[in-house]
Amino acid sequence: MSVESMAIALNHSQTSGTAKLVLIGIANHDGDGGSWPSVATLARYAGVTPRNVQKAIDVLVKLGEVKRLANQGGTHRTPDHARPNLYRFELKCPPTCDRSSAHRTREPLPGLEFSTGVSLPTGGVASDRGGVSRATPEPSSNHPYSSREETYVPERGREAESDAYGATPRAASASTGCTHRMVTDRHCEMGCPPLEARS
């Protein structure tokens, strides 16, 4: 079963009614080796007669949404005389599809070629002499700085400050002699040795 093929059939098919139901049935069976549901199975899905399924398949083939290969379906164990037709699901998302789960289509922008993704060339400017323009010397302002800036907190405010582990940043500095945030009562976040280990 190919959910992607079914979503494309539901959202991008040019057909309606029986032909669309038959297309959804073919998409339901679509896989790497194609799709080979019997006409009777497709008739059961669509709620129509086998002859109406055959007419719907003819419409789908004519529109190019399905390719029919006579007696090419089945597995390697299927004898040649019993092979069903193989159907190739040919329908694809149009270039204007956003390829989301809703398969919304948007209006194409003027002057763009969607098949290649490249915009059409322009005539240029008469004063353009070619070459490369100078790079901007300033750094980009749309990226945040990677380093954190320390904010000023008075000493009495630091005693009340604590992290997610409940350790206070300055309260245990007497045991290590450093000013780093304490992780336990004897160890700071930077791994400084306790005072008694340094003597």
Second CATH tier, the architecture of the domain at 3-89: Orthogonal Bundle
What's the rounded overall pLDDT mean? Answer: 74
- Main β-sheet description: 2 strands, antiparallel
Oligomerization category of the chains in this entry: single chain
* Strands, count: 4
Helix content: 25-40%
Which spans have pLDDT < 50 for at least 5 consecutive residues? 168-172
Could you name the CATH class of the domain at 3-89?
A: Mainly Alpha
Strand order of the largest sheet: 1-2
Strand fraction equals 5-15%
Report the CATH topology name of the domain at 3-89.
Arc Repressor Mutant, subunit A
CATH superfamily label of the domain at 3-89: Winged helix-like DNA-binding domain superfamily/Winged helix DNA-binding domain
InterPro entries: WH-like_DNA-bd_sf (IPR036388), WH_DNA-bd_sf (IPR036390)
Pfam families: HTH_36
Region (Disordered): 97-178
Biased composition (Basic and acidic residues): 146-161
Describe, in plain words, how this protein is organized in 3D.
The chain is mainly alpha-helical. Among the domains are: 3-89, Arc Repressor Mutant, subunit A (Orthogonal Bundle); 153-199, no CATH class. The protein contains 7 helices and 4 strands, in the order H-H-H-H-E-E-E-E-H-H-H. The protein has helices spanning 3-12, 18-28, 39-46, 50-63, 155-160, 173-176, 195-198; strands spanning 66-69, 86-89, 112-113, 118-119. A two-stranded antiparallel sheet has the order 1-2. Strands 3-4 form a two-stranded antiparallel ribbon. Helix 1 runs antiparallel to helix 2 (18-28), helix 2 (18-28) crosses helix 3 (39-46) and helix 2 packs across helix 4 (50-63). The model is unreliable at 168-172 (pLDDT under 50).
